[in-house]
Every structure is written in structure tokens, then in C-alpha cells.
Structure of Adenine deaminase:
Amino acid sequence: MTISYDLTPEVKEFLKELPKCEHHLHLEGTLEPDLLFPLAKRNNVALPQGFPQTVEELNEKYKQFDDLQDFLNFYYMGCQVLINECDFYELAWQYFLKVHKQGLKHAELFFDPQSHTERGISVDTVYNGFAKACSKAESELGISSKLIMCILRDCPLQKCQDLVEKEAAHLIKEGKVHGLGLDSAEKPFPPTLFTNIYASAKKLNPELRLTAHAGEEGDHTYVKNSIDFLKVERIDHGVNSVQSDDLLRELSANKTMLTVCPLSNIKLQVFQDLKELPLLKLLEFGVPFSLNSDDPAYFGGYILENYYAVHETFGFDYKIWGDIVINTIKGSWCDENRKTELISLTKSIVAKYTN
Ligand SMILES: Nc1ncnc2[nH]cnc12
Ligand SMILES: [Zn+2]
């Protein structure tokens, strides 16, 4: 499903060349219909009753979701075809191959163990497959990456606690997962429910980075409470932060990054039009944000299409794009040398297009 963007070839080339970092990408959300059906066959998985039968029918369904829950229903059905370590590896590797062609240099990648452990698959099977693809992407494609393990907020709390304190405790302690996140249905499961679990994860490894989905369908208090109770340093989506100027000032003062997902917000009807995406207000208040693809197989675009869509709507000049990309690099969880390298690359690309 390719959407065409009304941009000049020069702008397209500029956006492609920018050294992009992605902070909000669910690896399970990269499961394209043309991988889903072969995996179902290979693993002998019967898709649920009523599930589309062909790539074309599935693509038709993906044209629009009613809301977050409508999408999540399909997302979790899709997860069922992932069984063996090689499936997780193949999924992530296909993602890296696609975004390598789009100028992605650094990726911070979510994965959802509970969508697999519920089906009897071990956390290690999932982790090992994804980690292998990450190592290969670094050595063969020059893409650095970090894995962020997410808690599914609509699973029973005890199971969320067991994931962190038992099943995946070794991955946290050994620093194999770099960060902890919180995703899935937002509104009925406010962040305060997870205060103790976040605290025990941080106790297992004080270096663990913390983030959470908030302010996608929940209001601005979900963002504020994620910061105050979960002690997160980043917010995934966070677009409803614009409901409170006080919160925007706080985000700006603390340099708390919002990982904004433009095409996702349209497909899940958070906004009806990209013009409503509050990037200008975030820029006005000095709130750092990055642009991301969330679940690209479902939302009609990877990282570069998200950059295209934002350019088509807001028409930022090259200098503003340079600032957005540099802020994204600064808010990344990679080491300082990598940041310096990517910032200097950004500056040279902006200079090439503005001189
Ligand atoms: N956009 C999103 N919001 C919440 N949970 C998710 N899981 C995958 N994508 C998600
Ligand atoms: Zn997400």
C-alpha cells in the first residue's frame, strides 16, 4: 500500500539523506501481510474466524481503523503467526532492510513479550530472534539499535509484575533490554496502576531507561502521571499534552521527548487531518519531539513516509528539519560518540542543501 506524496524530488532526497533515528516502533507492528500469510502456513497457525484470507483483503482492512482497540485486535491476531526464534529474527531483519533504504541510522525498538508468552513462547525465544537481527543490522547495515521491552497494560497486573520480576528479570539485570515501556489499550489502564512494577524494574537495573505510551487516547493527565509516578524520561505519543500549557512548559524545561507518530494518529483517528498534529505548538513551547512510524505495516508508511507526510502538511524549511533531526538525535538513547557522529552528518546535509 503506497501513498504518493506531493513533494519535489529535491525535498524527497533531502528527507531521505537526513540521518534519522526512530524511537517509537513496535517490531510486531512491522508484520506485513505478505509475511503474515507465509508464516501462518509455515507454522501451521489457523488464523481466527473472520480474519481476512488474502493479502489484498487484509490491506483493505488496514486502510482505516475505528480506533486504537480496533487496530490492537488485528495486531494481536497477527502476532499469533510468530512462533520460532527465526520468525522474530526474520520480522526484524525485514524491517531493518526496509529502513536502511530510507536513511535510518539508529532505532529504539519496542517488543511485546506478553503477546507471545500467553501462547507458550518463552521471552528468550522472542528476545534472541530480535537481538540477532539487531546485531546483524549494526554490522552489515550500520544501523545501531536498542530494544525496549513493553508491558501490555491490558494484561492482568500480576502477569505484568511476573514479566518484569521473573520471566524477563535476567534481560533487565544484564542490560539486554535497554528500556522499559508500556503500551496497548490506554484509557482504561492509567499509568498509576504500574507504579510499583516500574519501581521494581528500575531496582533490578538502575541503568534501565523508562518510557510509556501516554496521551494518545488518554488525556494530558496520563502524560503527567506517567512522569510523576512511573518516573519516565520520555513519553510515547504524548500529543494530548497540548491540552495543558503547564504540562508543555514542564516538558520543555525537563527536555522530555515526545515520540510522535503522524501516520498512526491518522489511521487510529486520533486526528482527522495531519494539520491537527500539534507540531507547531510543540515547537513554540520548545518541547522536544521525534517523528516515528509506530506500526508501519498497519499504518501505511515507514519512517521516511512519516517525514514525507509531515513535510507535505507543514512545509518546514531545511533548517527547521535540521533542528528536528538534531533534537531527535540528542533525545536518543545511544552513546555520546554516536550522537556526535549523527549530529555532524545532519549539519553537513543541511549545509549541502542550503548553500
Ligand atoms: N499505537 C499504539 N498504542 C498503544 N499500543 C500499541 N501497540 C502497538 N501500537 C500501539
Ligand atoms: Zn506505539
